[in-house]
Write a structure and sequence with these properties.
By secondary structure, this protein is mainly α. The protein contains five helices and no strands.
């Protein structure tokens, strides 16, 4: 498995410290979630109740670690914070939450700005065709 520094898609010298820290956190989150999956599979596969209990305990520890990293990511990224506030602990079908959150449809970015990345700050106002027409 490649380490976090081996999974950069751009040369490190072109990346800010903020981007490198976010990368570290995202890779750590992936690893924690992968560990949750491994422990769950192992617990399902064993017929030994005492081993199953230990594996499930370990799985819950990895969930805790994943949540801690996710919270750090949320605190560092306004766009991620916005998305998590919209979806986590919501009720009803997730696609309906999406429609409500995005105002009835998918968000498009005609200006070409990257508003989906974890370290990009979204503008506080949103230009739409209606807003440009004064509606």
């Amino acid at each position: 498995m490649a380490g976090s520094s081996e999974s950069y898609h751009e040369a490190q010298e072109f990346l800010s410290e903020r981007t490198r820290d976010m990368h570290r956190a995202l890779v750590s989150l992936q690893e924690e979630l992968e560990a949750v999956d491994w422990y769950q599979q192992r617990a399902d596969a064993t017929s030994n109740a005492s081993l199953r209990a230990i594996l499930l305990h370990n799985m819950r520890e990895e969930m805790e670690h994943a949540c801690m990293v996710l919270e750090w990511i949320r605190r560092q990224s306004e766009p991620m914070d916005e998305q998590l506030k919209a979806y986590l602990f919501s009720k009803g079908p997730i696609t309906e939450v999406e429609e409500e959150h995005e105002g009835g449809g998918g968000e498009s970015d005609d200006a070409g700005a990257n508003v989906r990345g974890p370290t990009v700050t979204q503008p506080t106002t949103r230009l739409t065709v209606g807003s440009l027409k004064g509606k």
